[in-house]
Amino acid sequence: MTLLFEAFPQSQAAAFLLGLLSQLKTLGTAPQLLISDTTELRRRLSLRLFNNERTPSTIITHSSKRGGEKQIVVTPQALVEFACDLHELSKDTDDLLESFILQINVHCPNFPGEGIRKAWIPFLCQLIPALVSRSISINTPLYQQLGRQLVKYGDEKLGPCPQPDPNTPRPRIRCPCSDCVSLKRFLRDPNQVVGRFQLPQARRNHIYESLDEPGFDCIRKTEHIGRPHTLIVTKRLTLENKIKDWKDLRFEIYGPLAQNIQPELLEALLGVQGATVVQSLGGIQQEPAVSTTRAN
Question: CA angle 3-9-53, nearest 5°?
Fold first, then answer.
């Protein structure tokens, strides 16, 4: 079994090896096997999960295609199960869970941004309650570094919010007709990418020409189905769309933390100020302070 782990040193093998450890844990409960033997085997194999080539920053944690083949990803659930098993397998003089978290902290600066959002933030959200249920304190520098680094590097790798180019004039539709009002409403809505305007030809032409002004980056085509025909306006990636996409990605960092980790645990991880920022950006409304002053 040890040779099997050494035969697959690549980062792509991590999901397979984690699954193997999970199956070995299940087999270890069979009555014909000695628990002490299987426990020691699991312990030795767990120590071999990571090596110089297979590290927390190189394992496949989010979907991608290389060479046209979809790779098997390491899920947050598998990482949490592995962490909990390490706690179970630890000895007084050798804390395997602590070593695992230390490895994550060391490699965190090298995590890809998508990996942080898709795998490591969900991992943290599931890990904290799992540790607390096992009476493991998270109010320690080890876990505080884990939480704060994931937020820091997730935010840094997302980058700043897209900003308008001051050299690009903002286009405006000045016509007050009802068709142009509908067009302006569509253009201002970042959630709408495709607008459909089923109108007589003269009114379609009017909308078409309204988008001739510089700055309107839209694709226009007429759908010749039904009467009257339909002008289809498709936005390209406008600033509003870029900002919306950026906010959606930012929410993938802060939303799960704010919604899945209890406030007092979030404060233990990130401090009062850090927890407040996460809750605010994660969509959690802060309750106003209740005054205790009595009216005379």
Answer: 145
Pairing of strands 65-66, 69-70: antiparallel
Q: What is the mean pLDDT of residues 19-29?
A: 81
CA-to-CA distance for 76 and 82, rounded, in angstroms? 10
φ/ψ (deg, to 5) at 220: -120, 130
DSSP letter string, the chain? -HHHHHH--SGGGHHHHHHHHHHHHHHTTSTTS-HHHHHHHHHHHHTTS--SSS-TTTS--S--EETTEEPPPPPHHHHHHHHHHHHHH-BTTB-HHHHHHHHHHHHGGGS-HHHIIIIIHHHHHHHHHHHHHTT----SHHHHHHHHHHHHHHHHHH-SPP---TTSPPP-----SHHHHHHHHHHH-TT--EEEEE--HHHHHHHHHHTTSTT--EEEEEE-SSSS-EEEEEE-S-HHHHHHHHHHHHHHHHHHHHHHS-HHHHHHHHHHHHHHHHHHHTTPPPPPPPP-PPP-
Bridge pairing between strands 218-223 and 69-70: unpaired
Best CA proximity match to 256, nearest among 147, 102, 141, 174: 147
Question: What's the pLDDT at 68?
Answer: 45
Confidence check: pLDDT of 291 > 50: no
- pLDDT tens digits for 40-74? 888 888 988 888 888 999 888 876 544 445 677 89
Closest alpha carbon to 124 in 101, 153, 147: 147
Spatial contact of 79 and 118, defined as CB atoms under 8 Å apart: no
DSSP per-residue string spanning 10-38: SGGGHHHHHHHHHHHHHHTTSTTS-HHHH
Q: Is the pLDDT of residue 205 over 80?
A: yes
- C-alpha dihedral (107, 48, 99, 274), degrees to nearest 10: 40
Dmax (CA) of the chain: 84
